[in-house]
Amino acid sequence: MFYVGIDVSKDKLDVCVLGEDRALSASFANQKSGWHGLVNWLKKRHAAQPVWICLEATGRYSDAVTAFLYQHGYEVSVVNPARIKGYATSRLSRNKTDQVDAALIADFCRAQSADLALWTPPDPAQHELQALVRQLEDLTTMRQQERNRLQSGITTVTVLDRIRAHIAFLDAQIKALKDEINDHIDRHPDLKHQRDLLTSIKGIANLTAAKLLAEIPHIAAFDSPQQLVAFAGLNPRQHCSGSSLHGKSRISKVGSSALRAALYMPAVSAKNTNPLLQPFVQRLQQRGLSNMSIVVAVMRKLLHLVFGILKSNQPFDPLFLEKKAALS
């Protein structure tokens, strides 16, 4: 068995192949011509031997090459970057370059192969939803940039008119895209059912449900809510070193930034409106946590609820705690 680690960046793929007696490294462009070059290079190196490829989940940069390798018959595992980082720490790895990272990923693949799930293509409907949601995020970001330009002190009338016209155009595009997202979900019964489950949670509306369904792979890929929290990069990272025994815990941010962004405003809303979360929020307030720390904690709790609802296939029950107490 050959184990391949790929360090993925926007423009290139750094690759390391671990064979029986040596390691080989190479780099390829992160585009279709580079992917073809990678496949040809691998075929020359491994001949008829089986190959297992590992790469980190880096969203847009890794999605396309992962699908390409799968289509060419390779076994591929897409790994949460937090696991690779933890493995690097356990190996006391101090150097960090793209080639070193690729070798580390290959070594992780070899050492952890018994516990790695193989990647399978997303459902076409979910994949299209993801593309629509990500385009919506791009358009929303572009609109905010134009709004910022309006406030930047520009006084030339023709420039201001063009900015306002562009904002109006973006407004129309965003509205049309939101309608398209809703129509897309309505046309696919599984997505529609999952959206209805998610919107049963106080604080999660249709658009947030669409973002969650777009950015969370099939819920069966996660065995616990903690795994889903880690996938989103919302797991806490404790700083405790030397005399700094009471360093602040921070979220790792090693995970899906899109998923974290999708959860922020729902957490702000749920913090004040979700009855199941009220006692939790009050305990955190009594402990003196900052408002932002409480919002992040609610984001984690929301992911726990999302996991439970999608796994159980049952809507959110605001009387859950009362029923639980009555049965105990």
Briefly summarize what is shown.
This protein has 328 residues and is α/β, with parallel strands linked by helices.
Mean pLDDT reading: 85
How much helicity do the residues have?
55-70%
Low-confidence stretches: 238-247
Q: Note the overall shape.
A: globular
Give the oligomeric state: single chain
Order of helices and strands: EEEHEHEHHHHHHHEEHHHH
Number of DSSP-assigned strands: 7
| Total discrete domains | 3
Largest sheet data: 5 strands, mixed
Give the neighbour order of strands across the main sheet: 3-2-1-4-5
Individual helix count: 13
Class of secondary structure makeup: alpha/beta
Distance separating the two termini: 52 Å
Strand content: 5-15%
Rg, Å, rounded: 23 Å
What would the keywords be for this entry?
11% strand, 328 residues, single chain, Nucleotidyltransferase, domain 5, alpha/beta
Description:
With 328 residues, the chain is α/β, with parallel strands linked by helices. It has three domains: 2-115, ATPase, nucleotide binding domain (Nucleotidyltransferase, domain 5), CATH 3.30.420.40; 126-187; 209-327, no CATH class. It has helices at 32-46, 60-71, 81-90, 98-111, 124-150, 157-187, 189-198, 206-215, 225-231, 257-273, 278-286, 291-312, 320-327; strands spanning 2-8, 12-18, 23-29, 51-56, 75-79, 236-237, 250-251. The chain has a five-stranded mixed beta sheet. A hairpin with a 4-residue loop joins strand 2 (12-18) and strand 3. Helix 5 (124-150) runs antiparallel to helix 6 (157-187). The chain is globular, with a radius of gyration of 23 Å. The termini are far apart. Residues 238-247 have low confidence and may be disordered.
